[in-house]
Structure formats: C-alpha cells, structure tokens
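Incident log, structure service

09:12 report received: a user says their structure output differs between two submissions of the same chain.
09:20 pulled the input from the user's history:
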Amino acid sequence: MKYRFSTAALLCAALSAASAQVASHAPTAMHSMTGTTSAASKAEVSGASLQVTGKPVVRINGAVLTDRDLLREMYAIFPYARVHNGFPKSQEADIRRGALEMIEYEELVYQEAERRKMVIPVARINRAEAAYRAKFPSDEVFHEYLKTEMSGSLALLRKQIRRSLLIEELLKLEVGAKSKVSLAEARAYYDKNPTPFLHPELFAFQTISIMPPDGSSPEAKQKARSQAEDAVKQAKATKSYEEFGKLAEKISEDDYHVNMGDHKSVEADKLPPEMLRAAKGMQPGQVSDLIQTGGFYLCFRLNGHLPAGKATFAEVKDRLMKDMEKTKYDSLRSTLDKKLRSQAKVEEL
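09:34 re-ran on a clean worker, output below:
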C-alpha cells in the first residue's frame, strides 16, 4: 500500500470530532472515532458492531497501537464509510489488513526517527499546530476534540504533531529524496525499452449515424437512407469540431451523440473497412461521404491521423519520469518496511 503522511490520520480524527459536533444525525461509525461513550460509540460495520474501546491491536517494540488508531486509518483508506455508516462486507477484511499494515509502518518509521535523534524545530510544530487548529469550525469544537481524542491535553496533541512530522521527515530522507529520477535516467530507459512507446496507426473522428430499425421494410430502409443523405449534407456544411458536434448531438442515433459524436482516437484495425478506406484519403477537418456499414449509415469528421510509430522522448518524458519515480518510490518504501520489520518485534494482538 502506498504510504500517506500520517498527518492525514490526525486530520481524519479532527474532521470526525468536528462532524460529531455540527451534525447530531451523523453516522454512528463517525461518532465512534470521537471517543463518546454513548450508544453512538458503536460503529455498525458490515452488519457487525465494532466497539472502539482503546483495545490494543498491535505492539511494536513495546509501543501499543489501539483499535482507535486502526479505525482512523480504515476511514482514511475508505472515507465513504462515513457516508454509508460502515465498510463494504466484501472489502472490510482487506481494508482492515491494509490499515493495520499502515499504522505498523508509521510506528516503525517513527521509532527509527527517534532512534536517529532527528529533531523537529519548535517553530515548525507551532506552525503545524496553528494550521491544524484552523481545520476546526470553532474553538469550541477544537476543545471538544482535545477532550475526546487527547484527554484534554494540548501537549499530547503537540506530541502527535511532532510524531507526524518526524515520520514525514524520515520518509523524505529515505524514500522521497532517493526516488527522484533524472532526465538522463529517463532517456536511458526510453532508449533501452522501445516497446512501451510504440503505437499503432490511430484515427480521431466524430460520427453521425442513422440506424434503420431491425427488420424494417424496404420503405423504412429507404427513408433512413434519405435521412442519412440529408445528414451528410448538413455535416458537410459544418466548419468546425463544435458545429459538427452540435449536429451530432441533435440528429445522430449512435451512442456517441451525447459526446458530440467524438470517438477520440481509435486504432486503424478497429475501424470498419469502408470507413478505414475513406479515412486514409482524407485530411483533418474533412467530412466523409455517406458510408453504409453493418446495416446502418454514417458520415464522419476526421479530426486527426497518427501513423504507426514511436512516441518521441519529448512527448513522453514527463509521464515517464513520474511513472519511474512512483516505481522507485514504491520499491524504496517496501525495502524500508522490510528492513525496519526485520529489526523490530511486531506482535499483532
């Protein structure tokens, strides 16, 4: 699972506390995260009641994480649970496992940052605290959050903020900074791996189609053809993508009429032979003559033609670098996770 900075878990708790104050009808699953002791503290999850009591779920080198930490992370993974008052039964086990792995990973990273004696300046903690408090709709809601989530202790909140920032800093150092990909690295990958950058011949076009009813009489078919011939005359009179598109929305009978008749880019071998022959002899912006294929009539506006070939490095470099960085990030994150786990005692309870 890709790591999200642990400040998201803090924000999740903040929003949960805030929602509990501003909406008395909020789902009980949301109230369970605020520490209330009423019947609302039970979250209906997939038909089963999930009681949040602060029960330990995992111990890492003696540090205990509870079901409250786990549920916060489950909501961070699947925020729709607040709307639907629980997690989908078919996904709950996977969400729980993913959340457990995430809170374990965060704790391992935090402990490693402490072992290295990393320092977060007080001024930075102050800024983070101010930004965090600004997420609440009022001071009253913020203090209720402190009461329910932090035992009324501002010092405990600041400790949690410091923990989040330490996790963030260590990950920047060990994963973020090391996952950067240079232009030269991307170019080398592009040169050594041509296949992903090859593309077939592509045509971009819009269509207007007239479709005779199945089993229609010769008269009905002739009527449809007359409609199609008139449609072609109107289509050839259009001067732009927008004009053709508006006409398609008005008179076309195929599924693409709701998108201005636009099929975007289609591979040449996916086109009907009659349409492909016409497209090969056209220039972008031209409208075809009437074509009959598959029992219906159509005309199309050619918007673009890309011969088969290889995308240039300039065309793909930005996306390629992002993809390479993501792959490198995930690999570094996984390696760090394995290393920290190998040096720690992780006991799932």
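09:41 both user submissions now match this output. Likely a transient worker issue. Closing.
09:42 reviewer note: The CA atoms of residues 179 and 329 lie 5 Å apart. Confidence is low (pLDDT under 50) at residues 1-45.
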